[in-house]
Amino acid sequence: MNFRTELSIKKALWSIHLNMPVLTLGSCFANTIGSRLENYKFPTSINPFGTIYHPLAIHKILKYSAYNESPPEHTHLEHEGVFCNYDFHSDHAALTKASLQAQIRETLGSTHYFLKDSKVLIITYGTAWIYERLDTGEPVANCHKLPATHFSKRLTTIDEIIESFHSTLEILKSVQPGLQIILTVSPVRHLKDTLPLNSVSKSVLRAACHEICEKHPNVNYFPAFEIMTDDLRDYRFYQNDLIHPSGFAENYIWEKFCTAYFTADTQAFIRQWDEIQKALSHRPFHPERAMHQQFLKETLSKIKELKSIINVDEEIKLIQSQLTEA
To answer: Fewer CB within 10 Å, N or C, the chain?
Structure first.
């Protein structure tokens, strides 16, 4: 008897290889996937602008990055002695406007050059509800705890998201013609919108992703949202806040991601690297014992075998620092 409906993952038509630079943007799920990729030595830039939830805000930052263009002057603000920008997360903040502008320019510049080399872009949409400035009518990525009277809130339409994505994609193609894009909808629920309106929001995002993938062969959808809500669909797979996926759920979603986008060789490397990391994290009571020293030498040998495919200098130094013999 089956007590759940397991979501089967189709193999993507293209694969992510170890040395392919990957840029992740969007909600906190972009951080989760990005951290996993970085852990396995993929060259990764993880949400360089901080967590951003809305598609239009994500697209705007991608355009800034593609052009290596600083945001307009009127997007800066000062609140309670701290300077921020409406188009960026509060991770980008400073005590002077000049410092904030320099910080943003540096992030945009580094992301611009990373994007030019990137082979894969992973975008995670979090919500279709958007806040717009009452003074300019422009959507914002972050309200920076300003009073609600400064903004209006509305639900973005599917067509708005599709049109915004299309114009962004044309710009991205001019920077990196071979870019492959993975779209996901965050499985994290936005309870501030209420559960019924969160469902409305997620349905808009999902429908938009479907239409985008139908129109663009270089865009693929990964069903993180469906895995969490339909495959796992039990509160034991959530953290204590009953909103964010648990570590077990994240591992499960990651395994599905590996199945969809990694070759057999890459998946074999991931299993091999897991074993090496377990060895590196081992902390014996008596590190000088001959048995542990032999264990270190064997681990070092395994790590050196990977030098031709990944950078393992840090791991080699760590092992060598624990060896009693030179």
So the answer is: N
The CATH class for the domain spanning 22-262 reads alpha beta
Length of the chain equals 326
In sequence order, what DSSP letters do the residues of 20-61 get, joined into one string?
Answer: --EEEEESHHHHHHHHHHHHTT--EEE-TT-----HHHHHHH
Find the helix or strand (DSSP H, E) in which 267 lies: helix 264-281
Handedness of CA 117, 120, 125, 126 (dihedral sign): negative
> What does residue 180 show for φ and ψ, rounded to 5 degrees?
-100, 140
pLDDT in tens, 276-309: 999 888 888 888 888 888 888 989 999 998 988 8
Q: Per-domain residue ranges for the chain?
A: 22-262, 264-326
Phi-psi sector, 68: left (phi>0), alpha (psi -120 to 50), beta: left
pTM of the predicted model as reported, rounded to 2 decimal places: 0.92
